[in-house]
Amino acid sequence: MAIVDRVRDLVLPIVEAESVELYDIEHNGGALRIFVDDPDRVLGDTDTGIDIEVIKRISRAISHLLDEADPIPGRYTLEVSSPGLERSLRTADHFRKAVGSVVKIKTRPDADGDRRIRGELVAAADDHIEVAVDGETRVVPISDINTARTVFEWGPTPKPGGSKKSSPKKSSSKNQKIPEKEAPTS
Known about the structure:
Helices cover 21% and strands 28% of the residues. It has helices spanning 3-17, 52-69, 92-97, and strands spanning 21-28, 31-37, 77-81, 102-107, 116-124, 128-133, 136-141, 145-150.
């Protein structure tokens, strides 16, 4: 059994006990990354997300469990976090949850068409996705995808002080016109 699969089997009960979702697990050399998310989160909604206290509790519990079970040979660093706004998409379920989001995809070198695709993910099935690019829909087999992630599109930057109501500008006294009825008489 692969390391990621062993770790998934071990940590899933801890994650589920906190009523959160195990989004993904990555094991690259000296790092074990475990991504957890709020199952009710709406992708792109910056007002919701997983509570940092939940991540702390999960991290401590997983750390103790992995110390006891020792599923990974050698030294490694454990990282527990949310997948973030710009999240990796690797499974059909990841793609289904991201429908409606802007995505950036890089296909395998032997795949048909452009290797780099950026557009709105309009549909996702078990074996392929559909991405709207420049008014056309491109069907991409999931097996042809090398990397994929959501793209968070920042809105316009608010101007400093832009939320305040603007007050009338004061003009300098030398450019100020004096109303005729107040003008001095000669």
